[in-house]
Amino acid sequence: MLNIAVVGCGYWGPNLIRNFNSLSECRLKSVCDTDPERLAHMKMLYPSVITASEFEDLVKNPDIDAIVVAAPVRYHYEMAKKALKAGKHTFIEKPMAQSSRECEELVDIAEKHKLVLMVGHTFVYSKPVRKIKEIISSGELGELQYISARRLNLGLFQKDINVAWDLAPHDISTILYVLGKDPVSVNCQGKSHVAKGVEDVTTMTLNFANGAFGIIQSSWLDPNKVREIVFVGTKKMLVYDDVEPIEKIKIYDKCVEIPPHYDSFGEFQYSYHYGGMYCPYLKLVEPLKVECQHFLDCIKTGAKSESSGLEGLEVVRILEAASASLQDGGGQVAIRYSAINTAQTA
Ligand SMILES: NC(=O)c1ccc[n+]([C@@H]2O[C@H](COP(=O)([O-])OP(=O)(O)OC[C@H]3O[C@@H](n4cnc5c(N)ncnc54)[C@H](O)[C@@H]3O)[C@@H](O)[C@H]2O)c1
User: Fold this and answer.
1) What are the two backbone dihedrals, phi and then psi, of residue 113, each rounded to the nearest 5 degrees?
2) Which domains does the chain have, with CATH numbers?
3) pTM for this structure?
4) Of 36, 84, 210, 287, which has the highest C-beta tally within 10 A?
5) From CA 250, how far away is CA 242, in angstroms rounded?
6) What would the pLDDT profile of 11-67 be if each residue is shown by its tens digit?
7) Which residues pair with 188 in a beta bridge?
């Protein structure tokens, strides 16, 4: 039986706590937060849990096998480093850390200590995203031309990171997982309207070596909750709407056919193909539950997680390049790859 501790009982931590508490192969041993009210609330919900106001208490406790970091992003690196150095398997919420250098160091420490290091790229564990990968890999959409992702809502404003670092990790990790490819460069533009210097609206473009590209729009300043990714292929188009309760994926038999030969402009006509639409059946399960179970499975089997430190590092590298582009007014910034990826993914 694995003993789990969770640090951070704010907005997201309680979802992780609830899921780990529900899994039979682990015991929720301890929760930590600097806010006594949050701790008291957790104690009321889970009376047998040990509460701690100091993160060090989790690190020092020899009974704890794994630590889950759901504290604000500025603490991810320090907490994960302490946890790994104390021999605890570590799960860090997205984004993994504030810089690729920090992520690389965490990947190294986990490797050296032979510990599981996993990042909370929740959507990689969702049924719709798994199905989309299957559909795209089967070639049903034809050649992928572009992807357009929109993740918009009103709030929740973060103080230590901008909206791209907060929301885009979900879209970036989904796109990388579905395509199985890393982009070569990124462009990003954005504006801060509410808190000076913290962009609340951003648009990012991921450029891939084969010419495909992905546009990611992120906003904390929108009247509607939008969670949509559109995949446009040469044969068909797929819309993934995560706000939709049941029919989350729709595949449209729509495309534009360009005539192969024509002699004069008068003969030139695009052929618009309007076919039907279908929604594949998806047996929905809470992605976070699958993700938490996957963390336990990786600890038990020693398997590499599908959202390991390397995937976390990749997302942070893209965010870093996006921030450089943002500073530069939206210019194209190449993504820096280092030996750590080529050595470990070869
Ligand atoms: N996977 C997802 O879908 C998802 C969704 C939302 C948030 N998140 C991630 O979860 C993490 C937490 O986000 P949130 O929205 O819950 O933030 P939050 O601010 O609501 O909660 C953070 C909690 O950490 C506590 N805390 C702060 N400093 C601490 C310290 N030094 N020691 C112990 N506790 C401390 C705070 O008191 C607070 O209760 C972030 O990394 C965020 O990106 C992930």
Assistant:
1) -90, 5
2) 2-122+287-308 (3.40.50.720), 124-278 (3.30.360.10)
3) 0.95
4) 84
5) 11
6) 999 999 999 999 999 999 999 999 999 999 999 999 999 999 999 999 999 999 999
7) 204
pLDDT at 343 over 60: no
CA of 93, closest atom in ligand 1: 41
Residues with CB under 6 A from ligand 1: 7-13, 32-35, 38, 55, 70-73, 75, 93-94, 120, 122, 166
User: CA 312, CA 77: separation in Å to the nearest integer?
Assistant: 12
Strands 333-334 and 185-191: antiparallel
Phi, psi of 253, deg, nearest 5:
-85, 70
- Between CA 71 and CA 8 the distance in angstroms is 4
CA-76 nearest atom, ligand 1: 41
Of 11, 162, 218, the residue with max ligand 1 atoms within 8 A of its CB, to mutate for a pocket test, comes to 11
192 touches 200 (CB < 8 A): yes
Q: Which residue, judged by its Cα, is nearest atom 8 of ligand 1? A: 12
Q: Which residues are CB-neighbours of 343 under 8 A, at least 6 positions away?
A: none
Give me ligand 1 centre to Cα 60, in Å.
21
- 112, 114, 119, 125 alpha-carbon torsion, rounded to 10°: 150
**Cβ pair 215, 205 in contact under 8 A:** yes
